TrEMBL record:
Residue ranges, annotated region (Disordered): 1-20
Family from the record: Belongs to the glycosyl hydrolase 100 family.
EC number: 3.2.1.26
Gene Ontology biological-process entries: carbohydrate metabolic process
A single GO molecular function term of this UniProt record: beta-fructofuranosidase activity
Catalytic activity: Hydrolysis of terminal non-reducing beta-D-fructofuranoside residues in beta-D-fructofuranosides
Stored Gene3D superfamilies: 1.50.10.10
Protein name, as recorded: beta-fructofuranosidase
């Protein structure tokens, strides 16, 4: 056997303690679940958090952090907890004028009273856009998986959907179908120059609106409403326009970059639309040439007038595959890109949240010298094990949707996924299920990383479930099924 293949097999050789590791992870997960009004309603952000410091919120139920939790509970058919979580979030949906329709970033029960955070207690006081966008997605996944149509068409759920749609589908000064948000308003919750129309938010908007359409469709079958029909028509058009916008302005390959670099600038008038955002060729980073190779492609991080963000964001691209924003050939181009850049994105602890990191003056200027986001740490090039299951699910979903497409490539992706799974299996228990990892290879536990982080634990359990236990369950994530 060639030495290269021998070394590779050595790296991915199964751990004999797999069953014990999975069992222990499940025990940690059960400990993370807490009750609201006497019923289990979600998981705390981390098992180990200073209970004597009321300012720290790792003991609260975060909507964003509970996305993998709820999906894992759906795979286990524990529908009552998911329904309770969705209901509590719905009860806490904001009705104040400025944030009307926003779902809480987090909530906790103290002295029999529910306390919600809409961003007023966060560092920087920013409201989480992704928390609100995830709720309809989770609601639709729950209704479809549990077949609880009664909940989906209930007046409470339908009103919550309309409040959210009123929030995101309204006239603004911006003429494109994207949702504009400030810095720190989604998973990347520290300054990273991601204001505007960041990829993750726009992909979530697409999936959120698609889920709202499905839930409204259910309701329209049980009642005749002209207003509902008009809202459905508007939302379907918005979803279509948003996807076309993302594919036109965010998707890049080696070929599209060649065109972009040679486009005319300073165009004026309705007929001049080759370079709508007036992107100067000098702004295209040199690292893209090797990064893209010949057949790779990905969705860039942001499009802003004259200031596109060419960084690669793992979660946004994974969700774009999972939710069907990208076409089948584009998904395979993304897989090739990840395969080509595996030393950057997977390294020793899969996977890196953002590449490349900002360093020196760029880090100082764009993050405000944020000590948590120093180069190769946290959201500035750090490694987050909780992201792997999103990417893994997109690979497994693609295999199910297109079983005969590029068998060689998909075999390589399956091998990569297996290797990443065993890497986490062998490392995470020793590293106390840390939140994130630092350094170019992701070897070191993050400087300010919490241990026994819930979405690290449940992300591993989801990867184990979809890869080893019930591969067919990954189809539940297909919104277009």
């Amino acid at each position: 056997m060639p030495e290269r293949f021998s070394q590779q097999r050595q790296r991915v050789r199964p751990n004999s303690n797999e069953e014990a590791v999975v069992k222990r992870a499940q025990e940690h997960f059960e400990r993370s679940l807490i009750k609201i009004n006497g019923h289990l309603a979600g998981s705390v952000a981390a098992l180990e958090h200073p209970a004597n410091n009321d300012a720290l919120n790792y003991g609260e139920i975060f909507l964003r952090d509970n996305v993998p939790v709820m999906i894992y509970l759906l795979t286990q058919k524990r529908y009552d907890i998911v329904k309770k979580f969705l209901t509590v979030c719905l009860d806490l949906q904001s009705t104040s004028y400025q944030t009307r329709g926003v779902f809480p970033t987090s909530f906790v029960e103290e002295k029999d009273e529910l306390i919600a955070d809409y961003g007023q207690r966060s560092i920087g006081r920013i409201t989480s856009a992704d928390a609100s966008l995830w709720w309809p997605i989770l609601c639709w996944l729950y209704v479809r998986k549990s077949k609880d149509t009664t909940f989906g068409i209930s007046q409470k759920v339908q009103r919550g959907i309309q409040l959210l749609l009123d929030l995101v589908l309204h006239p603004t000064f911006e003429g494109t179908p994207v949702l504009f948000v400030p810095d720190c308003s989604f998973m990347i919750d520290r300054p990273m120059d991601v204001w505007g129309a960041p990829l993750e938010v726009e992909v979530l908007l697409y999936a959120s609106l698609s889920s709202c359409i499905e839930l409204m469709d259910l309701s329209s079958k049980h009642q005749v409403s002209r207003l509902l029909d008009q809202r459905l028509l508007l939302t379907r058009q918005w979803v279509h326009d948003l996807r076309q916008f993302l594919l036109k302005h965010y998707w890049v390959t080696s070929k599209t970059m060649q065109v972009l670099r040679r486009r005319p600038t300073e165009q004026y008038g309705e007929d001049q639309h080759q370079n709508e955002f007036n992107v100067q060729p000098q702004i295209v980073p040199s690292w893209l040439q090797d990064w893209l190779e010949n057949r790779g492609g990905y969705l860039i991080g942001n499009i802003r007038t004259g200031r596109p963000d060419f960084r690669f964001y793992s979660l946004g691209n994974s969700l774009a595959c999972m939710f069907g924003v990208l076409t089948a050939p584009q998904q395979r181009a993304l897989f090739r890109l990840v395969l080509h850049n595996r030393q950057h994105l997977m390294a020793q602890m899969p996977m890196r949240i953002c590449h490349p990191p900002m360093e020196v003056e760029e880090w100082q200027n764009k993050t405000g010298s944020d000590p948590k986001n120093w180069p190769w740490s946290y959201h500035n090039g750090g490694h987050w094990p909780s992201i792997l299951w999103f990417f893994g699910a997109s690979i497994l979903l693609h295999e199910q949707r297109y079983p005969k497409a590029d068998v060689l490539l998909m075999g390589q992706m399956r091998s990569l996924l297996e290797e990443c799974y065993w890497s986490q299996l062998n490392q995470l228990p020793k590293q106390k299920w840390a939140e994130y990892f630092d350094g170019p290879t992701g070897t070191w536990v993050g400087q300010q990383s919490r241990t026994y982080q819930t979405w690290t634990i449940v992300g591993f359990l989801l990867m184990h479930h979809f890869l080893k236990t019930s591969p067919e369950d990954v189809s539940m994530l297909d919104l277009n099924q």
